[in-house]
Amino acid sequence: MVMKVYSPEFKADAVALYLSDPSHTLEGIGKDLGISRETLRNWVRAERARRGESGTTNGNTKDIPVSEATKQELEGEIAALRAELKAVRKENQKLAVERDILRKATKFFAAEMN
Length: 114
Prior knowledge:
single chain; mainly alpha
């Protein structure tokens, strides 16, 4: 099997996305990003070890007041927001394409009815 090489930015964004919401699962985020659950789990473990955190629950930096937040936590939240924005833009683009297809189909069928 060929080893895939992911950029550090991609890894950081993937980990930040997973850690941004306690309802996220390794399986779900991995599937959305096209990476294996185990790969994402290893990245999350490495990030938690780097931060000195322990445990298996997702961290949620949204509940931490700004005065107590560290630079790393803020960067993680920014990375999560960037990943979310990227996903929303991708979904928006998909919906725009679908809308254009439906408009063309409507014009075609309207012409057929007349």
